[in-house]
Specification:
Strand content of chain A: under 5%
Strand order of the largest sheet of chain A: 1-2
Oligomer: homodimer
Number of strands of chain A: 2
Chain lengths: 497, 497
């Protein structure tokens, strides 16, 4: 590790570039604002909740101005980024883009409280999808488009983060998730971040476009199609309807289910299958268990629901697979209120909140590969007890996994659980009942969105007290950045020269 | 490991001896039966719930007969006990003594259903203290004495198990808990099991006697004094009163609090302090954190309760320390219904259910030393991220802890959590509501007794469906035997030659 100061120049430069990109994305909401808006767009208006055109423009200008200032004052920065700089950049990016990204909601007056606006925005960028809006359909369309765009940008960020940056930082066994993709070339995704990013983003854009088109075939207009494709591919969960995906046809529900499954898959596997090596995809253990988990949970729930729905197998299957996939991938779209299901069924859903998607996907949570490693290691411990002299390593994709990685994954799991306990505790202190407290904590830390209790599928986060909203925002950030990225900034040793 | 068959002879012999001991203990309840009984003890009666004299005699005879048969047919067994034999013996002992120990309850008709009687008995032997009795005071005194005696025997078993047998079997880092007691002599508790057992049992008997006397000073009669001392020292929790310890004076509540704290302490520390090395006790990290945890939780709860009780500081402090100590040591005595406390407070209590007492005490649960190791290891992971080349071991009592032990402890924790999740799931399936399901699972797996929901402090386990009672009995056994001892028997590799 370099013993110098932090490279504030390079930190400023990167933040500057990203703010300019954010400003550009804000402008993409303008056509929708102009088309659907009921106001004259040439009339300058702020804090008038049915006008979102000027708030978006002003916000974009502010973002661009700050970005440009940071970029130009730091344009001569050296290109060397240390690990420590990396941690700071990653955490700051999500916070600052959220602070600025909340401006359109706030300046339009559509979300009068800035805390609420920030909550909604960081929920977007972290692809959580937890909302404080009680009436989504009353929002101006430009703002709704920006809201879904935050998901999409966040998803892009996460793909690069989890497949290019975190492995370099050594977080939570992330180095494993790339190295262990089966195939002949060890560096098949090319180590350089920009190369990796371009290829994965290509896949991301391709899948988003494909989903949008398929949704439009099902009768959605371009606006709804794009918003929902953004929400799906980022495993976000913001919808444009109060009823979420229950507002749409079974065809659309199936399409979204399919694309949620794709979004929860390691993107390197998409890359591999696009290169014709589809067989290799199934060789990936995490992928297999991801599919098995979905299948088992779906069958369990669907068979019980069939009894309740008096034999309507199709609806039972659809409700079941949609909900299972939505929760396991941490998307959080809703077609049915699972809290009115029998206890056992929603308890399965609750457990799935701790599974999370695949590593290297846009999904959040603990993630399948970590669960798998921990489970294997626990079982092997019984073997180790019987053969105390033998060295019995955990194997993943037929290769032994180093003890360092297992330690890292175990620490990840424990810290996740400790934060979950602390989170539930804090939520109880500010007055939530037990179920809502664990629900809100699990759903934000896991970047899911809807939880159980007050914040269940038909509820939202509007009633959470102010402090709770900031706290849950922090949990979303923690979960999204794989805990360590943020926690390391809180450790005193990090700041020592 | 020996590649021979299991040594069935030695297994039978040890079980035989223990059944004879059980038979002898059953007879100790007879004086209380005779003294308090309303029936003529010379009149032979079974299945008459107000007569417990003959059921105790018959049960004792049955236990002795089976024991003698096993002992004499196997009396020429070789003295070699392999590890595998060890696992089988330990698990079988708890199951078989419970099967036989349930007879007095069943034969008297006081607990008409054998499943219930078994539940009550294994709850006793595992020092859980979960009860299916709705009216404890209606039970004949002889049976109540036997019920409390099962705690005391179970506690004796656990001390030997955790300080002499499990370290030899290498379970859950138990080898650590002995080796790491600070002091000049490395083998201060003498490695031979019988020696160790005698010394620790001496301390156990001494503390039980001391508590009984102090309780009798407070106005309890010999019967109540012994029963409650048994329940305390074993961290069991069966009381002779429906109101549990709320039926007694503040003085008695404080005495029981003190002895619960002692019972939840590593017994090697008692041995050390009895030898005048009291300073060395505080050098033990687990002990320090045990005391800190009690202090912090008590202060948190007491300060809030003081507000609720309008300034009754003494009662707030007493309710708070009693409940905290009762739960953290996994005793489960009750002086107050913590479920009517504000959410936050009973959530603290719920979290304490996962702490458990010290290793080498009679307490159950995950235990402080494991929590401490895991927590330290998680924090160090942040350091390891910053210095990936450095080897940074976890230290306990100023000595580095080997990776093997940490792995073992981590596996223990994970399996504990997996079983907790499965348990809650099973309890939901059989129809318990969410809170009761997690409450019953946490309280039985942790050998606590009262949980939350239906099985909270003023509830009991009588309403749990039959299958659920057997399942929870299994959880008590799993928790009591540190998971691995039982789980290893379920692994196919164990049974291969």
């Amino acid at each position: 590790m370099r013993r110098s100061k932090f490279n504030i120049q390079i930190i400023a430069k990167i933040l500057g570039v990203l703010l300019i990109i954010e400003a550009a994305f804000m402008l993409t909401a303008l056509p929708f604002s102009a088309y659907y808006g009921t106001n004259n767009i040439f009339e300058f208006k702020l804090f008038s909740s049915n006008n979102d055109f000027w708030p978006l423009v002003i916000s974009s200008v502010i973002a661009a101005a700050i970005g440009a200032y940071l970029f130009f004052t730091a344009r001569n920065a050296s290109k060397v980024i240390s690990k420590r700089d990396g941690y700071i950049i990653v955490s700051l990016v999500w916070v600052i883009t959220s602070i600025v990204g909340a401006l359109p909601f706030f300046l339009s007056g559509a979300i009068p409280n800035y805390s609420d606006a920030f909550f909604e925005t960081i929920s977007g960028f972290t692809t959580t999808g937890a909302t404080i809006l009680t009436d989504v359909e009353a929002m101006p369309k430009g703002l709704l488009f920006w809201r879904s765009t935050t998901h999409w940008i966040g998803g892009m960020g996460i793909i690069v983060l989890s497949l290019a940056i975190l492995p370099f930082l050594g977080i939570g066994g992330m180095q494993l998730f790339i190295a262990e993709v089966p195939g002949p070339t060890p560096d098949k995704l090319h180590p350089r971040i920009t190369q990796t990013a371009k290829r994965l983003w290509g896949i991301y854009v391709l899948l988003t476009a494909a989903e949008t088109i398929l949704l439009m075939f099902g009768g959605m207009n371009l606006f709804d199609g794009l918003c929902h494709a953004f929400g799906t591919m980022a495993t976000g969960g913001f919808s444009t309807r109060n009823a979420s995906i229950a507002a749409f046809s079974p065809y659309i529900q199936y399409i979204i289910t399919l694309f949620m499954i794709l979004a929860g898959t390691n993107f390197t596997l998409h890359y591999i299958s696009l290169h014709g090596r589809i067989k290799d995809v199934w060789k990936n253990e995490e992928y297999r268990y991801y599919i098995y988990s979905i299948a088992v949970a779906t069958i369990l729930i669907a068979s019980t629901l069939t009894l309740i729905h008096h034999g309507d197998i199709e609806k039972s299957f659809r409700d079941s697979i949609f909900t299972v996939v939505s929760i396991i991938t941490t998307t959080g779209f809703i077609t049915v209120d699972y809290l009115i299901w029998p206890n056992v069924l929603w308890f399965i859903i609750f457990l799935l909140m701790f599974v999370g998607g695949s590593a290297g996907s846009t999904g959040g949570g603990i993630k399948i590969v970590r669960q798998l490693l921990l489970f294997k290691n626990s079982l092997l411990e019984l073997k180790r007890l019987m053969h105390p002299q033998a060295i019995i390593p955990v194997r993943m994709n037929n290769r032994p996994v180093s003890q360092d990685i297992i330690f890292n994954v175990l620490a990840f799991f424990l810290i996740y659980m400790i934060i979950f306990a602390i989170g539930t505790f804090v939520m109880s202190i500010i007055g939530l009942d037990f179920e809502s407290a664990i629900g809100a904590t699990a759903a934000t830390l896991g970047n899911i969105g809807p939880g159980i209790g007050l914040v269940g599928p038909v509820g939202n986060y509007s009633e959470i007290p102010l402090f709770g909203k900031w706290f849950l925002s922090f949990l979303m950030l923690l979960g999204r950045l794989e805990l360590f990225t943020v926690l390391i900034l809180l450790s005193p040793a990090f700041w020592k020269r």
